[in-house]
């Protein structure tokens, strides 16, 4: 190796290390912002507390009053952590859907998974129909989960048919959205006033019914699925170069898409079944991560986790401060926040090939 080649190699290595260090700093900054957002979320509510009171209740619960301890630990912390786990799960699901389908519009919301979950929940709320008879007590979330998985599996099996392109899959997802929304509208038309109110509230998305059990379930699903994506980070990064190039690098593209779609379906269905329809998190979160840390899955994956969690946690804070004394449905806020951002994203990247 000549001296010039050695110097160029060393320069390239230094540049890569500087880029990696900068990305790590960005992720650390986002993580700090997430911690502040979680603490703020727990401080706000019908009775506002200072951040110092929240920190005292978290780290020195014996030094605070019973009321503050109960409010923070039993009421507000499950809601704050539910926002984090749901936001992270939906963002990761959207990120990997966009990766395997090579489409910036792919997400649990745009592919019909959220609409299917809404229809499943409405079956239980309006007609008392339990798709899984053994889960009558948890009829609404179980119905939502089953229908979300049905939609996801339909998308997957359709993608395995000969001649089906990624554009066709997105169109199938849009068709599912309209189909399930039409079926949901029919159920709402037939529902009683009480059932209709329950369906409308569920479809708006809400974290107010979060419990520790739901937090543990969503966190467990996220922690179980992340190792697969971490292990497949190189293959998923290669897939962004195109199927042919990824295959030439030794990636089994068909198997990777199969496993990723099945895992993503589970990752998207569980949170939606608990909190209702929350759009744009799975769409916008990955785009924010992609803008700040790039496509490399070693940074993109944790970036999607943090950005999704931060987006929904911040939305939870906004839902509490817009109208004093009231907590707005979080799905409404994500739409108001997500749509303008998405317009900016579209116009700022209109000349960039995806």
TrEMBL record:
<feature type="transmembrane region" description="Helical">
    <location>
        <begin position="75"/>
        <end position="97"/>
    </location>
</feature>
<feature type="transmembrane region" description="Helical">
    <location>
        <begin position="169"/>
        <end position="189"/>
    </location>
</feature>
<keyword id="KW-0472">Membrane</keyword>
<feature type="transmembrane region" description="Helical">
    <location>
        <begin position="24"/>
        <end position="44"/>
    </location>
</feature>
<keyword id="KW-0812">Transmembrane</keyword>
<feature type="transmembrane region" description="Helical">
    <location>
        <begin position="325"/>
        <end position="347"/>
    </location>
</feature>
<feature type="transmembrane region" description="Helical">
    <location>
        <begin position="138"/>
        <end position="157"/>
    </location>
</feature>
<feature type="transmembrane region" description="Helical">
    <location>
        <begin position="299"/>
        <end position="319"/>
    </location>
</feature>
<comment type="similarity">
    <text>Belongs to the binding-protein-dependent transport system permease family. FecCD subfamily.</text>
</comment>
<protein>
    <submittedName>
        <fullName>Iron ABC transporter permease</fullName>
    </submittedName>
</protein>
<keyword id="KW-1003">Cell membrane</keyword>
<feature type="transmembrane region" description="Helical">
    <location>
        <begin position="109"/>
        <end position="132"/>
    </location>
</feature>
<dbReference type="InterPro" id="IPR037294">
    <property type="entry name" value="ABC_BtuC-like"/>
</dbReference>
<feature type="transmembrane region" description="Helical">
    <location>
        <begin position="219"/>
        <end position="241"/>
    </location>
</feature>
<feature type="transmembrane region" description="Helical">
    <location>
        <begin position="261"/>
        <end position="287"/>
    </location>
</feature>
<keyword id="KW-0813">Transport</keyword>
<dbReference type="InterPro" id="IPR000522">
    <property type="entry name" value="ABC_transptr_permease_BtuC"/>
</dbReference>
<keyword id="KW-1133">Transmembrane helix</keyword>
<dbReference type="Pfam" id="PF01032">
    <property type="entry name" value="FecCD"/>
</dbReference>
